[in-house]
Amino acid sequence: MNKPLSKPELKHGRVVSPASRGSVAVELGLLGTWQVNEMEGGKNFPSLTAGPFPRPFETDASSVVPPADGYILSGGKTDARDCINFTDEELSKKLNRPYAWPLLNVNPGQTFHVQWEYTAAHVTRGYRWFITKDGWDPKQRISRAQLEAQPFYEDFYPQVPYYQHTDELKAKVEHEVKLPAGKQGRHVIILLWIVADTGNAFYQAFDVDFK
């Protein structure tokens, strides 16, 4: 196999529209944009273990260990970026004033359009979307038990092996998803940008209110 010998450069990105938790944290002065660009963790989520990415993409770089429960929204980062995982109560304590994550108003089944800004884009396998379960508890940090077991949408490039298709596997500046039809009230959406040539995905989180 003609695998590349050079180590892939670390290149990063974040969603700039609509407002993610990362964007809110930047506005609050809790994080810099570079930190939101680097919320990366193992791409095999919701698995807890490192290893090959599932078939038919097992020739992609193997996943590092995915984020632990309670640190999912920051991609497993436990430094200043842990603020992304905060409950409203934790965030209020950090800011020394009452504060809740602002909610994006959405409708069940609507198209949700996102725009990314990349410092430079990795070779991309695709994107995967998760959402909280009905009856989830906003007073608890996000864990696997708080999420629907399966992603509600996946958008993967089919070409394999990645190292023969690097010009085609491009990160998408804009893309969209249809939100689940049966949701009501407050939920958290997690979007993973899954990289083909490293063991990571980049994690972005959105707080929404289904009308």
Automatic annotation (TrEMBL):
Domain of life where this protein originates: Bacteria
Key words of the record: Signal
Pfam name, any one: LPMO_10
Coiled-coil ranges per UniProt: none
SUPFAM superfamilies noted in UniProt: E set domains
UniProt cross-references to Gene3D superfamilies, sorted A to Z: chitin-binding protein cbp21
Domain Chitin-binding type-4: 12-208
PANTHER family given in the database record: CHITIN-BINDING TYPE-4 DOMAIN-CONTAINING PROTEIN, GLCNAC-BINDING PROTEIN A
Protein name, entry field: Chitin binding protein
Organism: Pseudomonas batumici
